[in-house]
Amino acid sequence: MPFYPSEQAATPPQIRPPEGAAPGAVSFHISDLLALLDGYLGREEVAMVYRAYLFGAEAHEGQKRRSGEPYIYHPLEVARLLAGLRLDATCLTAAILHDVIEDTGRRKDEIIIQFGQEAADLVDGVSKIGQIEFENKEEEQAENFRKMLLAMARDIRVVLIKLADRLHNMRTIRVLSPVRQKAIARETLDIYAPIANRLGLHNWSVELEDLAFAILYPLRYRILQEAVRKRHGNRKALVDKVRVAIVEQLRREGLPGEVSGREKNLYGIYSKMRQKGLSFEQVYDLLAFRIVVDKADTCYRALGVIHNLYKPIPGRFKDYIAIPKTNGYQSLHTVVFGPFAVLIEVQIRTEDMHRVAENGVAAHWLYKTGDVGMQKRALQWLQGLMETQQQAGNPQEFLEHLKIDLFPDEVYVFTPNGDIKKLPRGATVIDFAYEVHTDIGKRCAGARINHQLVPMRTVLRNGDHVEVITSAYSAPHPSWLNSVVTGKARAHIRNYLKNLRRDEAISLGERFLAKALQSLGYTGEVSEEAKNALLSTLHMKAWPDVLADIGLGTRIAAVVARQLLPDVPAPSLVPSRAPGTIAIRGTEGAVVNYAKCCRPIPGDPVLGFLTAGRGITVHTEDCPNVAEYRKHPEKWIDIQWENGIDGFWPVAIRVEVKNRRGVLATVAAAMSEMDANIDTVSIDERDGQDTAMDFVIEVHNRVHLARIIRRIRSQEAVVRINRKRG
C-alpha cells in the first residue's frame, strides 16, 4: 500500500478526465503514481512527492486543459513518465510543479520554503520566459531553448522534465487548432526528438518522431502505416524464423542471450525513403534484431556467430562499444543478408548497455551503478553548446547552431597523439581544428591527413589521422562558413568576423563623428562628461559602442554631434512650403523624412526613429506604428520642432457628411476660407444617408488645423470630422 503522510487524508482525491477527453487521456489516480514510487523510493521521498501533488492541485485549482480535464492531470502524467525511468523524488516533485510558476502566479521562493532550493531551481529551469517582450515568436522560442539548455548544464534533469512534458502534450495535442498542432509538431521534430535521441532516450525519441510525423504529414503517415501493416503480416513468420535461428545458433555456441525482433518506426522509414530517394518497396532493412548478453566479450563472440549464420554486408558494421556515441550509447551494429535476401540489422549489447540505450542519461539515476561516464559525455556536449551560445550574436543564431549539433551522423578521426575526436559527417579540417582548440581553429592554414598535405576544406572520413598546420598569419575568412558543419566552428568564425567588422566600424565611426563636429565649428576633444551624459541618454555602456553604431550606419554622426554639443547654435532656418529643410531641432546634417502613416505637423509631440540608409523618420508620439518601433529604444531620439517654422504641411482628415447635393463644394469652400490647400480627396459613399470624404490638406501647424476642423464642423451637413492616423 502506498505511503501517505499521516496529516493528510488516507485516500487522496482521484484525478479522472471527463467524458469526451482528448485521445491519450486515461483515468489516473495519484495512488497509481505513488504505487510506482513505492517500488524504488523511501517513505520520506514518497511523502515529498505527495506533498508536491497537494501543492500543485491547490495552485491549479479551477484550471482546465483544452480537453476539459483538470489541469493537475497533466503534471501528474509528466511525473508518471519520469517515474517510469525511476527518477529521484526531487525530479518528480519538480515535474508535478513544473507549471506553477508560469501558470498560477506562485513564486519560486514558496517552492524553496516547502521543497528546497534544488526542486525550485528545476522548476525555474523548465519554466518559460514570460516577463520579456520579444520581437517575434522565433526569438522567444530561441531564448526559451537557450535558457533551458543553460539550466541543463547545471542539472540535466531539467531537460528530462521538459521532454516528458512535451511527450504528454504531443499525446494529447489533437484538441488544439490545426495551425497550433503543426507549429508544436515541427518544433518537436526539429528540437525535442533530436535532444531525446542525443541523451539516449530512444523510446521517447521514436514516439515523439511518430507523433509529430502524424500531425505534419497525416496522409503520408496513414499510407505508410497501412503499407507497414500489410508487410508486417507477411513478415511475422520471417521475424519468428530468424529469431529462432539466432537463438539456436547462440545456444549451440554456448552463448545464451535474449533475442528480440522489431520493425523500424514509421518516421525512421520515411526519413530513409526521403534521404535516399527510395520507394517503400526498396526499403529492405525494416527488420532489426537485438541480442542482449552478459558482458562485452560475449558481444564480439555473438557477432562472429551472426556472421557465420548470415553473410554480412561490407561497410555496414559499426563498433559503438569501443567508440561510444556522444550520448553514451554502446552496441555492435551489423547488417546481414537474411532469408529470402532480406536485409536485417542486428544490434548486440550487454544488459547495462541496453539500459543506457533505452533510458539514456536517466540510467544514472535509474540503476545507481556509479558509472557516470555517460552523464559526463552528455554534460560535455552541453558545455560545448554553452561555449557556442557565448559566441552566438543572438538567440536565433544559437538555435541555428543547436539544430546543426542535434543531427550528427558521426565520423571518428584521430589526433597526432592518438586521441579520438567525434565530428558530424561532412566535417572538414576546419571543424576538426576548432574541435581540438579554438586558437588552433583561428590559426588553421592547412592539414596533413594520413601524412598527406590537404586543403582546409577537405572532408574527413572515419579513421583519418589528422594533423593541423597553423600559421601566425592565418585568420578566419568569411568563406570558411561555407566549409564548416559544426555549430562550434561556425559560432567562433562568425564571432571573429563580427569583432573584426566592429573594429573597422569603430574606426570609421570615429572619423564620421570628427567630421560632423567640425561642421558645427568644433575642433577640440569632446569631454568625458558629455560622452557619459550621452551614454546615459542612449542607455549604452561604452563609448566605442556609439562609434560602432555610427560606422555601421545605425546611428547618424550629425545627430550624435548635436547631442554631444546641444549648446552650439544651430544653422539658420530657411522657411519653405515643403518639409524638406531643417525643421527639427538637433537633426542638422541628417536626412529627415516625415512618416506618411501619421503625417506629423508643427506642434505635434514627435519622436525620431533612426533607420540605416534613410536617416531620421519623424513620427507623432501617438502614431499606431510607434508601439512596434518602441521595441528598439536604442534607435529612438528625442526631437523637437524648431520655433517659427513656416510653410505648408500635409495632413489627412476624414469628414463624414449627410448625403446632400453640393456638400463637397460646401466643405471645400470652408477649407479655402481658412487658407488650407486641398491636395487630394476621395469619397466613400457608405449608404444612401451618409458619405465619408478623405482629404489630404496642407496646413501651417497644429493650431491652424484646429481652426480648420472647427470651421468644417460648424457646417450643417457635417456629421463627424477627425484627423486620420495610421
TrEMBL record:
InterPro entries: ACT-like_dom_sf (IPR045865), ACT_dom (IPR002912), Beta-grasp_dom_sf (IPR012675), HD/PDEase_dom (IPR003607), HD_domain (IPR006674), NT_sf (IPR043519), RelA/Spo_fam (IPR004811), RelA/SpoT_AH_RIS (IPR045600)
Family, as annotated: Belongs to the relA/spoT family.
Organism, as annotated: Acidiferrobacter thiooxydans
CDD domains, per the entry: ACT_RelA-SpoT, HDc, NT_Rel-Spo_like, TGS_RSH
One Pfam family hit: RelA_SpoT
NCBIfam families noted in UniProt: spoT_relA
Annotated TGS domain residues: 409-470
Molecular function GO labels: GTP diphosphokinase activity; guanosine-3',5'-bis(diphosphate) 3'-diphosphatase activity
Protein name per the record: guanosine-3',5'-bis(diphosphate) 3'-diphosphatase
Highest rank taxon of the organism: Bacteria
PANTHER family to which the protein is assigned, alphabetical: BIFUNCTIONAL (P)PPGPP SYNTHASE_HYDROLASE SPOT, GUANOSINE-3',5'-BIS DIPHOSPHATE 3'-PYROPHOSPHOHYDROLASE
Residue ranges of domain ACT in the record: 652-726
UniProt EC number: 3.1.7.2
GO biological process: guanosine tetraphosphate biosynthetic process; nucleobase-containing small molecule interconversion; response to starvation
Catalytic function, reaction form: guanosine 3',5'-bis(diphosphate) + H2O = GDP + diphosphate + H(+)
UniProt cross-references to Gene3D superfamilies, sorted A to Z: 3.10.20.30, 3.30.70.260, Beta Polymerase, domain 2, Hypothetical protein af1432
Keyword Repressor: no
Protein role: In eubacteria ppGpp (guanosine 3'-diphosphate 5'-diphosphate) is a mediator of the stringent response that coordinates a variety of cellular activities in response to changes in nutritional abundance.
Domain (HD): residue spans on this chain: 71-170
One Gene Ontology cellular component: plasma membrane
Pathway in which the depicted protein is active: Purine metabolism; ppGpp biosynthesis; ppGpp from GDP: step 1/1
Keywords associated with the record: Hydrolase
